[in-house]
Amino acid sequence: MKKRFMSDWTGKTWAFLTLRIWLAMRAIVTGIEKFTGTKIEEQPLLDEFGEPDISGAMVEVKTKVYGFEHYHAVDPSLAEALGKEPLLPDFFLTPYYAVLGYALIGLGLMLLVGLFTRTSLFLMGLLYTSLTFGLILIQQDGGVAWLGIHILMIALALSWADDNRLALTQKG
Fold first, then answer.
1. 85-109 burial by CB neighbour count: b if 16+ within 10 A, else e?
2. What residue segments make up the domains of the chain, in order of their start?
3. pLDDT by residue (tens digit) across 7-29?
4. Which residue ranges run through the membrane (predicted)?
């Protein structure tokens, strides 16, 4: 008798896959958001019927856009606060900011497709730990707590990694 695909999957297998997908999507979308900007366009003011106002008035409409030219690793106010922290010298922050978005996207994609799953989870944990370090220094306790939850999720995923399925590589 032929075994059906997924017939031997346990609850831990499904749990790991769900957690792996969630962590991957969180990292990918967070990384993509590092490439957002705002485009401002002038458009005619519309009346109650959706027609251009008879006065010819114009309004500015802000639209979210994506592009490499909009790359920003962190919010400017956060970057300013981190820049004032003596334990985070500029020669460290500049390259960190340069790779942060790309690292989030890359690690998220690796995790999503199951490429060296344990390694990508561990590296993602180190990345989130580094973000936590910066937030601790500038006393952003809410962000520290959120990242702590992410670290716990990564630790749980690492403990379930033996149940990894649908992956490009099974070891690593």
1. eeebeeeebeebbeebbebbbbbbe
2. 13-35+71-163, 37-70
3. 788 889 999 999 999 999 999 99
4. 96-116, 121-138, 144-161
